[in-house]
């Protein structure tokens, strides 16, 4: 049913693309990977990431990082995600090197050329149309752009204006993937980022920042509207939304 999965995103699903980059955003050392067979891989996790679990449920092998994928491996999919990457190219520059979403899409085009050479144009197009394209972007555009004091972004845009800017760019990027043959999309919304450790560390009261949690709500709302429009206007496309912000709202987290 699903011959392959192609993954685009940031540190939540990066599985090694930053390992060989001159970047401060790396996870190829302990304690990362302490529960992963073989140890650290570049995943920002003790073990599997969300997309690893999805691949396993689909009966696919673990999807290789673009930096490591070769030969027939790409026929099962490729992971292009890069820690510190954003929808905007300028996002994440504090970490030096990273692979923004636009570059991840260009990397997919290179993979697509390999698949087309292997399968032929007709069979490649048919296979790509049945693949899942998982996209998890946007977190860094807030954490490592809008909320960073060395970026002018917060002075240029209010919350709604910035969400509009992001989703305008996001729409263009997803349409590019569609024009390259992608049809089945899974988009992850932004979680409650006011509760992540880097934000909690700045709290004077030791609790989640509701200001940051509220900040990202216009983005999630815009993404849902965008998806409805794309589903209605792109023939054969199917966009599905993962509401990350509410996946764990009934679980008490002990920090």
TrEMBL record:
Keywords: Hydrolase, Lipid degradation, Lipid metabolism, Secreted, Signal. InterPro entries: GDSL, GDSL_esterase/lipase, SGNH_hydro_sf, SGNH_plant_lipase-like. It is found in: Secreted. The keyword Signal applies. Its main location: secreted. GO terms for molecular function: hydrolase activity, acting on ester bonds. One of its GO terms (biological process) is lipid catabolic process. GO terms for cellular component: extracellular region. Pfam families: Lipase_GDSL. Belongs to the 'GDSL' lipolytic enzyme family. This is Zinc finger protein, putative isoform 2.
């Amino acid at each position: 049913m699903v011959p392959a999965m192609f993954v685009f995103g940031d540190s939540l699903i990066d599985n090694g693309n930053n390992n060989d980059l001159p970047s401060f955003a790396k996870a190829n050392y302990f304690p990362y990977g302490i529960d992963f067979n073989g140890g650290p891989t570049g995943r920002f996790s003790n073990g599997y990431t969300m997309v690893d679990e999805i691949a396993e449920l689909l009966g696919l092998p673990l999807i290789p990082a673009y930096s490591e994928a070769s030969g027939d491996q790409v026929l099962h999919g490729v992971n292009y995600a890069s820690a510190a990457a954003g929808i905007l190219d300028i996002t994440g520059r504090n970490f030096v090197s990273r692979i923004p979403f636009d570059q991840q899409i260009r990397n997919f085009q290179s993979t697509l050329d390999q698949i087309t050479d292997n399968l032929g144009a007709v069979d490649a197009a048919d296979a790509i149309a049945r693949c899942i394209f998982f996209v998890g972007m946007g977190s860094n555009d807030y954490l490592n752009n809008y909320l960073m004091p060395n970026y002018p972004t917060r002075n240029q845009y209010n919350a709604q204006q910035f969400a509009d800017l992001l989703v305008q760019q996001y729409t263009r990027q997803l349409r590019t993937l569609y024009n390259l043959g992608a049809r089945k999309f899974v988009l992850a919304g932004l979680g409650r980022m006011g509760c992540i450790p880097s934000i909690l560390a700045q709290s004077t009261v030791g609790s989640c920042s509701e200001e940051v949690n509220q900040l990202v709500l216009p983005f999630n709302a815009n993404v849902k509207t965008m998806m409805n429009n794309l589903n209605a206007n792109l023939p054969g496309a199917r966009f599905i939304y993962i509401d990350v912000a509410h996946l764990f709202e009934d679980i008490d987290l002990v920090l």
